[in-house]
Queue: 2 jobs
Job 1
Amino acid sequence: MARTQPAWITVREAALELECTETWVRDLARRKRLRSKREYGVIVVNRADVSRRKARPPSRGRVPAGDPGAEAASAATTEVRRAIAAAVVSTGAGRVVFDPAALDRAYELLMAAEPRRLSASLCGRLTVGTEIRSEDYEDAPYED
Amino acid sequence: MRTRRTRTEPPSPPTQTLPSTLYLDTQFLFAYLVADDADHEAAAIIGRRLEALVEGGFARAYLSITVLDELAWKLSGVVYDDENDAPGAWRQLSQPEQRRAYRVHATTVGVLLLLLLEQPWISVLPVDEEVCDRLPLTLTEHRLPPADACHLTCAARHRVRGILTNDRRFAELTDSPVEIVTYGPRRTTESR
């Protein structure tokens, strides 16, 4: 007799399915990105929602109709996502294999599509004028 | 007689592999933020790639409050050296002087941490009750400094697959429950 899969799965099962942490799954449930409920005191999430999320990356939100700027931004974001996906050679077993050169080009597209991202200005923001290392700056003294 | 034909295939591009979930160690984030760090160029490259992978939904990058705590102190040293135009000056301070200097630069450091936390590609892992419960065992088993033991415990508890760091203490671990992922060659070859 064929067994049907349960419609609700545990947070741990969902985390395994989505290759993310249980915390992340709980956060998705809290933000209503996944339907969830409590069964015998344990949080379970909807299997179909998990499968849908696994099948495609989450959308960045709806584009307001008739807003050319937003539509252009959405098209650019779609192009970025396509470029990133094209740079990825394979995924599985908790690893992602990618073409570094193609991914670097995708990153440039991402920065062009989302100029308000601060990562480019944050990276290397501090300087002291000579070569240093993290180890040069001791950990905080805890005995106070 | 059948002749053996060799097929010429276009060379495949070199690939790179990363765990799909990575814990960003303090050492990595310091190198990412500080342009003069010996690992900065390598950290910037892997940071950009990781950001793109996270954006595409192929990876996730995490830090924890322990990372922020360590970063706050180390960055205040960098800010102190920069503002006094004297690299290495921080190291010459006594601990009470360092504490006073830290208070002076706390706002600058706080803004930096805020900007870091606003990065859409970086998520925060909670240091929860289970992390606390497991920490003594990690300290006993791996004999790491307390903050590094916190990182390892937090990453393991949340089943993060790799810790991104060039920290030699992590690199020397032989029985880590989480893969230690080093990144790129240093700008200079060995320690000063």
Job 2
Amino acid sequence: MNGAPDISVLGLLFCLLLLALPLALEVKLRPGIFRQTLLAAARMVAQLGLVGLFLEYVFESDLAWLTGLWLVAMVMFAAFTVARSSKLRVRKFYPPLLASLAATLLFVLFYFNGAVMHLGDLLEAKYAIAIGGMLLGNSLRGCIIGISNFYGGIRAEEGVYRYNLALGATRFEALAPFLRQAFTAALMPTVATMSTLGIVFLPGMMTGQIIGGSGPLLAIKYQIAIMLAIYACIILSVSLSLWLTVKHAFDEYGLLRTELLT
Amino acid sequence: MAEPVIEFRQVSLRDGARTIFQDVNLAVQAGEKLLLWGRSGSGKSSLLKMALGLIHPGSGEVRVAGQPLDGRNVWEIRRKIGFVSQEFQFGRGLTREVLRRFGTFKANAGAQFDDEALRDMCRLLELDERLLDKPTEELSGGERQRMAIMLVLLLRRQTLLLDEVTSALDPALKQKVVRFLVDQPDRTILAAAHDDVWLEHAQVRVVKLEELT
């Protein structure tokens, strides 16, 4: 691998110049997003700058405990984001979401690094953090879509849900239509991505490999492997999140505890 | 005397600061047809829902078949009581399929949802059979109401909680449906209604909720 060519400071400045586009949009239509865009871009630069410096050190030292610590921090932040974005009370739902994301990441990452990549060290920093980040990012997105869809669906169609309960449905039977909807919503974006991969767009991992000097065939193998791992991650994390949060979200009569939703 | 099928003991319900009803005592005996009569908002529907654990009383106790209703036995109780409510919805889909979905519950394993059973029910409730192949969203209020009655009859529950089940039916059909329901001596019925048609039947015990509080 030759490695990707460096991007100079001037190159990055040219990139920032692209923010003139939202500025122009703001001047013309006043959609009120330029300030948010600028803040988001500043946050991105600051976050990635700090993470970049930190990862330089982590990859260089390749200490298993430090890699583990970084993964733990990522999972903790992801669980918080899922709870908040899914409109669940963080205090009540943080522990089950944390457990779901952590168990999913641990299982799929070790499976991927061990059985697929055949790495001797399952916590080798370069792979554990890069692959772990991709898996966790997708789990997070899937969980937000799945959980929001599930609880939002029950709230929107509480009449249907209660009618099922009233006429003898078990807890699972009454929840089944909403579970189906939640899984479909969480998985469909990945299914759509998988089916268009390579034709409509070249995804991040593959692009990164190619720019980094890998041949297209190797990049494709990585891409196939990561897509399937991502899919497994979404199924596992959504299943675990729903299974563990349902225990808190409904009372013993099967009624949704709406006070725990925001 | 046998234990009442459903009993409310000193039951109260509040909505925020407003008391909807207080210290209601009411017992429904096996085979009895009891009509809760009262103005809108008096809490008739809520009282029915309490018997299925769908609303929790602010105070007091709900007993079903002699047992205090709780989070453990409510699941078994819901398997034995049929409920029709104007507020509840079937869910989306073709009416025939939506009705059959209720038959897939373990609790309803013995219920017949085949074409013949559905046809017989359509005849009884004067429903055009072709409605079964229409999406539930396209049914009128009266049609939905009859589908809900059909569903609960197909489930063959001995005890029925009926919340305004005839409000959207024409007068002749109201007569027919109420007569059909009250003429079944083994069935226990607790109904909430405004319709005078219930009052024409001697077997119906009428209770004014306002007078119970």
